[in-house]
């Protein structure tokens, strides 16, 4: 792991110096590149260390809490009774009596087969 960190630091320093240009590298440019690379490594190490310390501090209590939570999950084999807040359902209305069938049949009578005259001769306005 140490060699990996050293390799990353050297790559970061090389990239920073290449951005400046190898012909114009000064001591200040080298110091800036090394400082930036080591700051990045220090921040990464701090994050890893904080995560490890947090796991050591809170890991056992989290595991105990998880086991306690899993132990409480016992289901009863019988149904749970619930009082309903709804009123009793209303009675169904009486069924509507079917309409009496017409004596003439299912279809309307044919207007041309009626027994009356087609043209009434009674007084009135005829066209």
UniProtKB/TrEMBL annotation:
Record keyword Transmembrane present: yes
TM annotation in the entry: 37-55
Keywords: Membrane, Transmembrane, Transmembrane helix
UniProt-annotated stretches for the region Disordered: 101-127
Protein name (record): Uncharacterized protein
Organism of this sequence: uncultured Blastococcus sp
